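Batch job 17 of 40 flagged for manual review because the log was empty.
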Amino acid sequence: MLSVLSYGRLVARAVIGGLSQTDSRDYSLVTASCGFGKDFRKGILKKGMCYGDDACFIARHRSADVLGVADGVGGWRDYGVDPSQFSGTLMKTCERLVKEGRFIPSNPVGVLTTSYYELLQNKVPLLGSSTACIVVLDRQRHRLHTANLGDSGFLVVRGGEVVHRSDEQQHYFNTPFQLSIAPPGAEGAVLSDSPDAADSSSFDVQLGDIILTATDGLFDNMPDYMILQELKKLKNSNYESIQQTARSIAEQAHVLAYDPNYMSPFAQFACDNGLNVRGGKPDDITVLLSIVAEYTD
């Protein structure tokens, strides 16, 4: 049995060690991506970091790790517009702003706002709409800052449980909040939300926390319990393991999306809104899977 004095020394060492780690170690995100365009049967990257009409980015600056996903609104295709152009350009602009240091880690809405207004002022005409979710890890403060507009989103898993998640933003069923650029003279006829309407959150993270950021193609086809089952396969924080798990999640969501007999979260949501719907929801799927790890330069 430990003496009271010995026990006190052990506790003191543990407390001092914990404070030292908290004060001295920077955190980082080890992130892998995987996805499927709904018109493809394999995970194929389109141009840049695009899966179908979805787009994403992963960027690092000296003070923070930043990542994001965007889901281009497919309805624009009916008007001869490639929906991936808007989402892809939005994410590429966010990535550039981060790499140039033109952002504040605690203000991910600012990244989204600056990027969107750059698109509005672009001399090259760009039309389209997109949801967006931005996640920023402040390395020194060990704090995650998020901004989510629409029905893409994120969840944070610790100890096998979801401890944080984004709130979905919908105007009405299957019509999420979105950033838009309309043709001249048609601005009032196109649904468009301000970047400031994005839902923001900030919270502390711990080493080993798992952060999953994805477009609605994942969340519409996989409930939390299925995602958590897949995340249990993640045994360490090396990139290969994270990539394998990200692919496993994306593949399962892709299979479920084409199952006509599956009662998907989207089908359940439709039923709750008075619609008789069953099956998965064929859609583009983008998954960014991250683990909070100790920063190594």
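Reviewer: the log was empty due to a logging misconfiguration, but the result itself is present. The chain has a mean pLDDT of 90. Unflagging and moving on to job 18.
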